[in-house]
Design a protein that fits this description.
Elements: H1 2-31, E1 38-42, E2 47-55, E3 59-64, E4 68-73, E5 77-82, E6 88-89, E7 92-93, E8 118-122, E9 126-133, E10 136-142, E11 149-158, E12 163-174, E13 178-193, E14 197-216, E15 221-241, E16 246-255, E17 260-269, E18 274-283, E19 287-299, E20 302-307, E21 310-313, E22 316-319, E23 324-330
Antiparallel strand pairs: 1-2, 1-5, 2-3, 3-4, 6-7, 8-9, 8-23, 9-10, 10-11, 11-12, 12-13, 13-14, 14-15, 15-16, 16-19, 17-18, 19-20, 19-21, 20-23, 21-22
């Protein structure tokens, strides 16, 4: 099983790399093309691809390969843009991935576009994301019982035609069940590629803050202890569109071991007729999670994602019994 997850991850990452090369070659070919193709997207998500012959305040006339000349009233159009490199492969429009800023667990350096608001349904709960500007988005994720509630924010900046950098953070609370519990995760991500084929490297530092009530049997009262714990987090992820509907997605999550902590347990000593506090030093183990999977673009504004996760914890590698199942829907 260990080899199966590693092999799946290598195959997906190799596919991402090869498609990035193909995309670069297509860009060189497109640079020599005499005509610029556009995509016209209507309010009902219908799409027309071709060469724009005429455009004025009332309508757009576009020359398509299948339908010939099509006149579209301006008030029915939600977006007009150039067809980007890699969106047409072997004469078939593949399109860029609307939800390309996300994998299974992590995000990347690609910006969420202004107005591209969406929800990601997980088995454990929803995740809302809102594009406030072309380079800045915020969101909130939680479980079905609202424990915890986590807010997110991400700012992206282009470093070149194929490279994007993002910085952001997560800030959460145990909400109504445990308001004394909190978490934070500042992170940075750098992505090479576009919204059709990309590879991503990200890192951050996750911190937990919580209080713990410890009962002292000898003094017959409780003591509140405050705890803070932080760990380094890393990720390598990528995706590649095989066609207009199917994308291969790979995600990973690496968490370093936690610091040593002193823990206490109370045992009753019958010889002294009192409780004895026994202390020990322990540290939490590191964690590795690998998630290869497939994303199916059911509609331009929705997608379904499915994958299997494997985890290494305390020196043992085993598959996660529940699959990673996610639904994306534009809001």
């Amino acid at each position: 099983m260990n080899r199966l997850f590693i092999l799946s991850a290598l195959l997906i990452m190799q596919s991402v790399y090869l498609n990035l090369i193909v995309s670069a070659q297509e860009q060189q070919e497109n640079d020599q093309a005499p005509q610029v193709r556009h995509i016209v997207i209507k309010n009902d998500n219908a799409r027309f691809i071709g060469v724009i012959l005429h455009e004025d305040a009332r309508e757009v006339i576009i020359l398509t390969e299948n339908l010939g000349e099509v006149a579209i009233p301006k008030h029915e159009i939600s977006e007009i843009r150039e067809v980007k490199q890699g969106e047409i492969r072997d004469g078939i429009f593949v399109g860029e991935e609307m939800f390309a800023t996300r994998y299974f667990l992590t995000t990347n350096g690609l910006p969420i576009k202004k107005g591209d608001n969406y929800i990601q349904w997980n088995l454990f709960g929803p995740d809302f994301q809102f594009g406030l500007a072309d380079n800045f988005g915020i969101g909130v994720m939680t479980t079905w019982i609202a424990i915890p509630v986590v807010g997110t924010a991400k700012y992206s900046k282009s470093l070149g035609d194929k490279t994007n950098l993002a910085i952001g953070g997560l800030l959460g609370t145990g909400s109504w069940a445990n308001p004394n519990f909190g978490l934070m995760l500042p992170f940075a991500a750098i992505t090479y590629g576009d919204r059709s084929h990309n590879i991503n490297f990200s890192a951050g530092y996750g911190g937990l803050f919580y209080t713990e009530e410890v009962y002292n049997y000898n003094t017959d009262r409780s003591v509140t202890n405050k705890h803070r714990e932080g760990r380094l987090l890393f990720s390598i992820a990528g995706m590649t569109k095989l066609n207009a509907a199917i994308s291969l997605v790979f995600d990973s999550f690496f968490m370093t071991s936690g610091p040593y902590r002193t823990t206490s347990e109370w045992e009753y000593d019958y010889l002294t007729d009192r409780y004895i506090e026994i202390t020990s030093r322990k540290r939490s183990s590191g964690l590795i999670v690998l998630v290869p999977g497939i994303r199916w673009q059911t509609k331009p504004d929705s997608a379904f994602q499915f994958g299997f996760a494997g985890a290494r914890f305390e020196g043992e590698f085993a598959p996660v019994p529940l699959p990673m199942v996610q639904w994306y829907r534009k809001l």
